[in-house]
Amino acid sequence: MMKTLKLTLVALIALATLPLLTPEAASAQAWIREPGSAYVNLGYRFIRADQFFGPDGETVSLNPYRQHALSVYGEVGIVRRWLMATIDGELVRRNVLVDRGATTGLGDIRIGLFTGLVTKPVNLSFGVLVGLPTGDPLPQSDDPSQAVTANLLPTGDGEVDITPTLALGHGFRWRKVDQFVQATLGYAIRTTPREVAIGEPVDIRDQLVYRAETGIRIDRTFIRRFLFIVRFAGQFTVQGRDEGFSRQGVAGLGDGVEFHAFGLETLVKVHGGFGVGFGMDSVFFARNVPAAAAFKLSLSYEL
User: Fold this and answer.
1) Rounded to the nearest 5 degrees, what angle is found at the Cα of 137, between the Cα atoms of 95 and 262?
2) How far is CA 52 from CA 214, 235, 243, 285, 287, in A?
C-alpha cells in the first residue's frame, strides 16, 4: 500500500524522469489529486507602491503604501478523479499608509471543490469556489485622527462570492524539457457586503477571473529541481461598466477592482516533499489597485 501511494505521489509531482509534467504551483486545479494526496503552500507577499491605478485606469500619486500578506493555499484529494478540496486565503494582511496609519488582520478566505471532467487527451475540471468575508471591510482605529485612514485600508471585501470555474491543463515532453500549460476561467458572482467605508451596503458587481500559465523543467543534473513558470492573470468587471468606477480605498479590495498582470515564478524542490519558491507579479493595466509589483516567497510541502 505504501509503495503504491509513493508511486502515485511521484507521478503527481512530475519528476523530470517522467514524460508528463503536472504543475507543482499553487492553484493547479486542472489535475485532480489522488485520495490521500495533499499540497500546502505558505506564502509571503510584499507590495511597495507610491502610485495607484485610479477608477479610470490612469496612475495617480499615492502616499507611500506598503502591503504585507501571509497567505496559505492547500489542496487535498478526496475521491479519485472526481473530488478535490481547496482552500486559499490570507492568514494575516497588513496595510500601511506611511506616516498616516495601518491596519492588520485576517484576510478573506476561499474554499473550493473540484471534479475531473476529462483526463485524456487533456485534463479538464470544473469547480466552485466560495469566498468568505473573514477579513474586515471597515477596520476601526483607536485613534480618532486615523479613522479615515483605517477605512481606506480594509483587510477584506465584506461579501460572500461564488465562482464557478473551469480549468484546462496539459503536460508533455519535448527533448530534455517537461512542460505544462494550464488555463482557468471563472465567473465571480458577488453579493452585497455587510458594510463598506461609505457607511451603507452597496451592490458589488460580478467579475470574470482568469489565469493562463506555462511551466518548464529541464532534464539536466541539478537544474531538474527547478520549475520555471510564466503566467498571465487578472479579473475584470462584467456588470454596469457604463456606470463608472469609484475609488474603493487603496488596498485593492471591493467593487470596481480590475487588473491584468504578468508573473514569473521559480519553484525549487528541496528535499522529499518540501519546496521553496520566489516570484513577482507586475500589473500592466488596472483599476483601484496599487500600481506596483508584488514580490512573493513561499514554502511548500507535498504529501
Assistant:
1) 55
2) 29, 17, 21, 11, 8
For cell 500619486, the residue is 61
Q: Which helix (H) or strand (E) holds 2?
A: helix 2-13
C-alpha cell at 131: 469566498
Question: How many of the other CB atoms lie within 10 Å of CB of 242?
Answer: 5
Q: What is the pLDDT of residues 59-81, one digit of tens each?
A: 999 999 999 999 999 999 999 99
Look up residue 62 and give its three cell numbers. 499615492
Q: What grid cell was written down for 168? A: 484546462
- The confidence score (pLDDT) of residue 196 equals 53
**Which of 159, 121, 156 lies closest to 135 in space, CA to CA?**
156
The H or E element spanning position 68 is strand 59-79
Tell me the three cell numbers of residue 225. Answer: 529541481
Query: What is the number of residues in the chain?
Result: 303
122 with 168: CB under 8 angstroms?
Answer: yes
- What is the pTM assigned to this prediction? 0.86
Closest CA to 47 of 235, 237, 293: 293
Residue 2: pLDDT over 90? no
Residue 20 Rama label (left phi>0; alpha psi -120 to 50; beta): beta
Contacts of 191 (CB under 8 A, 6+ apart): 159, 160, 161, 204
pLDDT digits (tens, 9 = 90+) for 238-294: 887 777 777 778 899 888 899 999 999 999 999 989 999 999 999 999 999 999 999
283 phi and psi, to 5 degrees?
-80, 130
Quick check: helix, strand or coil at residue 131? strand
Q: Are 93 and 135 in contact (CB under 8 A)?
A: yes
Q: What is the DSSP letter of 34?
A: P
Cβ atoms of residues 127 and 165 within 8 Å: yes
The confidence band for 151, taking pLDDT boundaries of 50, 70 and 90, is confident
3-state SS class at 31: coil
